[in-house]
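Hello,

Our lab assistant flagged a job as stuck in the queue for most of the afternoon. It eventually completed. Since we weren't sure the result was trustworthy after the delay, we are filing this so someone can double-check. Below is the sequence as submitted and the structure that was eventually returned. Let us know if re-running is recommended.
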Amino acid sequence: MKKSTILIISLSVFLAFPVYAEETNEDITTEIVTEVVVEAPAEPLTETPAVTHIEGVTDKTDVHYTGKYCLECHEKNPVEGGNIYLKFDGNFTQLCKCHGYEPGTYIHPVDIFPSDEKKPMIPDNMPLLEGKISCVTCHDIYLQCQLNPRSKVLNRRFLRGAPYVSRTDLCFSCHDERKYKMLDPHNQLTQDGKIIIEKCLYCHEEKPDEEHEHFDEVKLIGNLEVLCYRCHFKQSKFHPINANHLRKPSDKTLEIMKESEKRFNIILPLNYKGNITCPTCHNPHERGILPAGQANSKGASEKYRLRMAAEKLQICVACHEDKFDFENY
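-- returned structure --
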């Protein structure tokens, strides 16, 4: 009983403190919560005079959820259920001028008619403006007009239906999630063992001759690291080895690498500038793409795709002889 009483008191004290969210470049994540919290009701708009334009308001001023910047968007105080007197004839591109004027600045295109395929999928609580997708389709503008610090934390972007468990849940209100599965470029063979050429073109300008071409002969569509970072960006900042290996190896290290290629029957390809790159240690191909037994096939479909997976993942020894564990080899 005592423990229950203490717990209730502790929760009461905790909930008494206000919650604030610092605005950062990642503040969109404030919409991601694991449970829906009942929000305190906000004060409704009334016909009392609106606060006049406040001096010092700039495009850096956060006017949302304050309840005091009405005349930034309204010509005069709006009437609930009646005329809301929006400026610029209700043009949201101009009303939301702080967020940019160019279409490319928005996460989703606006001022467009949804396709016949998409229109039936749009929920009733996501209104179109004169039949077009607009800011109000996804954003509940009225919600942020009111003073409500709790909503500012739980639903900073005043998204309709928020808070959401995942950032993409809102998107899949209208879009078919099955059509937006991430492509895995490493699954390169059909069930009957044929090469899926479209997967080759994810990185190559043209399908290489897997039987005869060497690494320095294939044509890639761009920088090797950038190709990998399209999916593995986290590893570019927090690589498990915890060191920057994307550099030109010393003459001594290069000599060790050449010896390792012969000893373990592998390849350790460098990029066109002679630098270590992602495929130096990792084989991006599926097992069966490159002929078995060839040095360039080692590591395909192995754990972490390491070219020395057969050597108990001791990839470090390919360049650093002193790191080889001879006892467990």
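-- support follow-up --
The delay was a queue issue, not a problem with the job. The result is valid. The CA atoms of residues 234 and 240 lie 10 Å apart. The mean pLDDT is 79.
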